[in-house]
Write a structure and sequence with these properties.
heterodimer, A: about 90 residues, mainly alpha, B: about 190 residues, elongated
């Protein structure tokens, strides 16, 4: 959209689109604004790139969440559990 | 409830499912892994003792993470790490946009290139390290939303903040991580 600002006839600026990306991804934009967002995105290459960058940013962070549980940590919690059960049975 | 009736297998299964997330959330507030483990253990003990009233009104995961967030916050205050940082605008005046809101410095193209590298350990390490440097409020939201993959509603309940507030923090955190990835991709 750089340069040819209102060629598409919509009234969302690039900055406004960028500011609304998180709300859009949470599906929390009102339907009219959502339509304007999507219309802008469809025809603005830099905004489209920014949008994709946010998607891959999110995906990269998600990679960090897929680690399994450390067996030592689990053993420590289960120790805690056995102590608790010992206490409550006593 | 099976957990409190001493069903060990049921307890082991929920530990398996939630403990890593709990430690990761706690780790955002406290200095060491050991202290984060302690905070998570306190939450398990609270569950076993039936403290803090888990009554099945929220999901167990939400309840556990809420306990962890509250305890880790106060542990973090004791350790002097939790500093509330706030800034005002959603998109900083960093020269990306002109005054009337169009791109002045359009993003370079790297999103497609990074897709092939998503699982690269170096990229994960970089993002993990960057999340560590974020202001605490942003860090907790992005950890729960993007690292753990929880919903907006769940995270609002866990942290006791409005959906709108949460979204502002998430927006800033993602913007900051995006910039860090951009440095890496352009560098």
């Amino acid at each position: 959209m750089t340069g040819s600002s209102s060629a598409g006839g919509h009234d969302l600026t690039c900055r406004e689109l960028v500011e609304r990306v998180t709300t859009y991804l949470d599906d929390a934009l009102e339907s009219e604004e959502r339509a304007r967002f999507e219309a802008h995105l469809a025809e603005c290459d830099p905004c489209c790139e920014h949008f994709k960058q946010i998607l891959v940013t999110r995906a990269t962070a998600r990679q960090l969440g897929d680690q399994g549980l450390d067996p030592l940590a689990k053993a420590a919690v289960m120790d805690l559990y056995h102590r608790w059960r010992g206490d409550s049975d006593a | 409830m099976r957990l409190r009736n001493g069903d060990e297998e049921a307890f082991a299964a929920v530990v398996e499912r939630h403990h890593t997330s709990m430690v990761r959330l706690a780790r955002g507030y406290v200095r060491t892994e050991a202290v984060a483990e302690e905070v998570a253990q306190e939450a398990w003990l609270a569950l076993l003792r039936g403290l803090d009233g888990f009554e099945g009104r929220s999901s167990l995961r939400t309840w556990l993470l809420r306990i962890v967030a509250n305890r880790a916050r106060s542990a973090g205050v004791r350790e002097g790490r939790y500093l509330a940082v706030e800034d005002s605008r959603l998109e900083a005046a960093d020269g990306r946009f002109s005054q009337d809101g169009w791109w002045m410095t359009p993003p370079t193209h790297w999103a497609d290139d990074i897709v092939d590298r998503l699982t690269a350990p170096v990229l994960a390490a970089l993002v993990r390290a960057h999340i560590e440097t974020l202001p605490a409020a942003q860090r907790e939201v992005v950890t729960l939303r993007d690292v753990e993959g929880l919903s907006s509603a769940e995270v609002s309940t866990i942290l006791g903040i409005t959906a709108g507030n949460q979204r502002v923090l998430l927006h800033r955190a993602r913007a900051s991580i995006r910039r860090r990835l951009e440095e890496e991709m352009e560098g």
